[in-house]
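As promised in the previous annual report, we have extended the structural survey to additional targets. Below is the entry for HD domain-containing protein.
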Amino acid sequence: MTDRLDAQFAFLIEADKLKQVIRATTLADGSRRENSGEHSWHLALYALVLADQAGPSVNIDRVIKMLILHDLVEIDVGDVPIHSANGAAHGSAEIAEAEAQAATRIFGLLPADLGTDLRALWEEFEAAETPDAIFAKSLDRVQPVLHNIASGGGTWTEYNVTFDQLETRVGQKVARGAPTLWTYVRGRLRSFFPEV
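The corresponding structure token record, generated without further manual editing, is:
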């Protein structure tokens, strides 16, 4: 039991480093950039509160687990914002490989049974093929949009984001798992993007 607890606590201490990863997105009030630990917590809350937007086959408990785990790899890789100058790297084979290596290291800190289970949830989120993962990805994409709206445009101005970029990089993924949610959010973009 001691060895198992040692491994579990080693993982939990390592996961604390996620609080040190600064994201491109600001807090909703625009006062500072959020960290990835805050982002993961906020997304878990999104899943809990917006569960009524999920399809009938979505298991919100699994979605919450995915969202808590989904950015742990940023401990090693960092945040790769989709609208930044380095945004082209987002989703690239190079970033995917780096994230897979990070997942191997981080989930490998856990006892094998638990590490395998949590890694499988992370991989499911990344693949975005199951109803749970598709909904989780939708929430992951919509949260920064809502922060940018709340902060008066936030990083959209900084990164010169166009509505077409937002629709392609974000809107399609949100609409795939939460169509009503994207319709709602899209309606709030008019003051930032007149072409909406």
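The radius of gyration is 17 Å. The domain at 2-187 is CATH 1.10.3210.10 (Hypothetical protein af1432). These points will be discussed at the next consortium meeting with the crystallography subgroup.
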